[in-house]
What does this fold into?
Amino acid sequence: MDCNIAVIPGDGIGPEIVTEARKVLAKIGNTYGHKFNFTELLMGGASIDVHGVPLTEEALEAARNSDAVLLGAVGGNVGVSNWYSLPPELRPEAGLLKIRKGLNLYANLRPALLFEDLREACPLKESIIGDGFDLIVVRELTGGLYFGERKTVVEEGIRKAYDTLTYDEEEIRRIALWGFETARKRRKKLCSVDKANVIDSSRLWRQVVKEVSKDYPDVELSDMLVDNCAMQLVKDPGQFDVILTENMFGDILSDEASMVTGSIGMLPSASLGRTKLGLYEPSHGSAPDIAGQNKANPVATILSAAMLLRYSFDLEEEAKQIEEAVQKVLKNGYRTVDIMSDGNTLVGTDKMGDLIAGEIK
Ligand code: NAD
It folds into this structure.
């Protein structure tokens, strides 16, 4: 297969971790006879330094014309880097919002999986971890509070800020479809999370999700209030298979879910829309504190490359090969500094990539 992949290394540790993901993809290409054509694009601070904007129209167009986009991370040291003296729409993270919107990527899939060999990294008690957990958050990405109208005014000498949370039924239906389709490929349990006891958009959310569920009789649907979900994630994460939720709730819950795995450097994500073109990136940021030191864990980006093969190219076997290669390297005791523990072997970013690529045969 011929695969045209736009690669955005970005800032901080981005270039280091993307190099390792490319290394692993190249090995998959050699092993399975696929041709990966990589086009490098600038985004974030790297683009600001060259073009004065976090994402040019040309770079966005090039991403649009590719089959998939692999991203490292963008952003610098907030408050220290000069990028943050720019207006918000010209800062590195604005590139991220622009590319998601520009590619119409409205579904964000973030798995939170407890790696058996990293149980000691999990901050939860053994009695809560039990047999482990393997859940995925399906988050609506282009609607809700983050994209609604907002303003700050002064009324009778008092400062007042407004943010608007709206969802229409089409926005809810299309993300619900992603939720049910994802559940169908897993353990067939979907928990839809909202705040329907208080807010109208959640009441509509609940109704529309129920309507969509009629086409998925094989998927068990439950509803949960977001405050309860936040508690259940640390009380009994094993109960969840797929969590379906709106933009802001998903932002918070997916961070909580990734933290309970204890290893943010291990977790990939995919942002998808109606077509096969998706954006794949680690769940973490650009970690400027360790950039350029060969300390970053490249696994989240390598697992994002596995998601890219699965969702944009339907290469399930190749995706599984990468995931199994990661498990084997962990089983053999190799660790980057963020997941290091007694009795294991400390390796740098590049060695971790070599080891994982070496397990693909
Ligand atoms: P961060 O995720 O970059 O870092 C948090 C902590 O985790 C740091 O101590 C860092 O060293 C560590 N860490 C993160 N990834 C790691 C990895 N792969 N291996 C080892 N350790 C890792 O979050 P932050 O410090 O809040 O943000 C730093 C910058 O990243 C900011 O500019 C922020 O805006 C940006 N950011 C970008 C994205 C994105 O590009 N999607 C997402 C989140 C944050």
Observations:
- Residues 1-108+267-361 form a domain with the Isopropylmalate Dehydrogenase fold (CATH 3.40.718.10).
- The CA atoms of residues 282 and 313 lie 19 Å apart.
- The chain has a mean pLDDT of 96.
- DSSP finds twelve helices and 14 strands in the chain.
